[in-house]
Inverse folding.
């Protein structure tokens, strides 16, 4: 299970990386915005994407749309971990095809639940 | 800022009053056919308007000057005499400092957590292994040779536990100390908030004065179209008053409710 963590703040990437490690996911890579993440996703064999929304360069929602528009990546599970908390934005992300949405500040438990739920669904398919 | 609550109001009223008086006079003179004197009245109306205008422009300039001077005073207090850094760039320097400090504290905390976690987990694993052996001993399933091994391992484990707990509690202390940024950043942010408030107040005063000048001068600005386009794709960042806003969720539970209502 290879996971890409995309956030412009290195501390947030590190927190998510540590929480993922705690959940048994040790194979992670990091990117600081959509522009660096997309080529990594296209060339690497990632199984899961965790992304922030608000980032310089390409935002998380644009990254999500780019992933869904890419023939080889469109089935990649995407979890959004973001401070964006407007209802419209959550609906927008859902319409863009997000698999899970965690608002910051979040708990380790919330992140764990969402990730497990996404994997359950992916495996059920 | 040393401005009256409603700058220019008095000037405007004065001008309007004199305009009314002169208008009447003007009509009378025109009716009587005294055009020369009528022109003089028009001239004095113009003069009254110009006087008000110059007065307001003067006020405006003084207010602007005052706010600039105030900024400089504040800056020199902060950065020492002779500094020519503007208050705004000082404020962004200060906020950069907050970012740096919080970043450092977060990384320091995570370093300590990351170095504590394996120590604790190693102790746990060793305790788990020893307990299995201990239970065998209690059930008298242990040979004398094995017991000597266990005896030695328990001695080593106790020593290791002592060292590890000292290390971890030192780390916990350091984690505690790493939170001292809150005090420093709190002070810096309060100062910047005060600056923003002051600048806003100065701007509001300037706008109000400019409005009076426009009124006296009879200038009518076409309302600039309000740019209300949302920056939705870029994102808005954390919502501060989430609990009082209808369009914002106030936590993960509400996100989950919303998503499940959408069929997630």
């Amino acid at each position: 299970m290879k996971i890409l963590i995309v956030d412009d703040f290195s501390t947030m990437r590190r927190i998510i990386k540590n929480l993922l490690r705690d959940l048994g996911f040790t194979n992670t890579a990091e990117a600081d915005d959509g522009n660096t993440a997309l080529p990594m996703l296209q060339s690497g064999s990632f199984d899961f994407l965790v992304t922030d929304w608000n980032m310089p360069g390409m935002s998380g929602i644009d990254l999500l749309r780019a992933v869904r528009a890419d023939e080889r990546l469109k089935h990649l599970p995407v979890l959004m971990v973001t401070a964006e908390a407007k209802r419209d934005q959550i609906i927008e992300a859902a319409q863009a095809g997000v698999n899970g949405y965690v608002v910051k500040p979040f708990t380790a438990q919330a992140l764990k639940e969402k990730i497990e739920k996404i994997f359950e669904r992916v495996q059920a398919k | 800022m040393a401005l009256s609550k409603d700058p220019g109001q008095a000037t405007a009223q004065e001008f309007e009053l004199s305009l009314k008086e002169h208008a009447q006079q003007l009509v009378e003179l025109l009716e009587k056919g005294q055009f020369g004197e009528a022109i003089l009245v028009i001239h004095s109306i113009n003069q009254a308007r110009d006087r008000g205008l110059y007065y307001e422009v003067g006020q405006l300039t003084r207010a602007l000057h005052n706010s600039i001077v105030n900024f400089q005073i504040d800056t020199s207090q902060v950065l020492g005499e002779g500094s020519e850094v503007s208050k705004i760039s000082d404020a962004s320097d200060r906020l950069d400092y907050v970012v740096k400090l919080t970043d450092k504290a977060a990384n320091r905390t995570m370093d300590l957590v990351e170095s504590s976690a394996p120590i604790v987990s190693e102790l746990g694993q060793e305790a788990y292994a020893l307990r299995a052996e201990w239970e065998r001993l209690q059930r008298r399933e242990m040979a004398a040779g094995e017991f000597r091994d266990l005896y030695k391992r328990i001695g080593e484990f106790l020593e290791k536990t002592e060292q590890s707990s000292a290390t971890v509690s030192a780390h916990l202390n350091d984690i505690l100390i790493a939170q001292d940024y809150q005090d420093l950043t709190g002070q810096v942010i309060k100062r910047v908030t005060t600056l923003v408030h002051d600048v806003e107040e100065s701007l509001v005063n300037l706008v109000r004065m400019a409005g009076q000048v426009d009124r006296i001068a009879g200038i009518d600005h076409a309302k600039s179209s309000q740019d209300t386009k949302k920056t939705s794709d870029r994102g808005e960042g954390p919502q501060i008053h989430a609990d009082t806003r209808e369009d914002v969720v106030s936590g993960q539970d509400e996100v989950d409710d919303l998503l499940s209502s959408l069929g997630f």
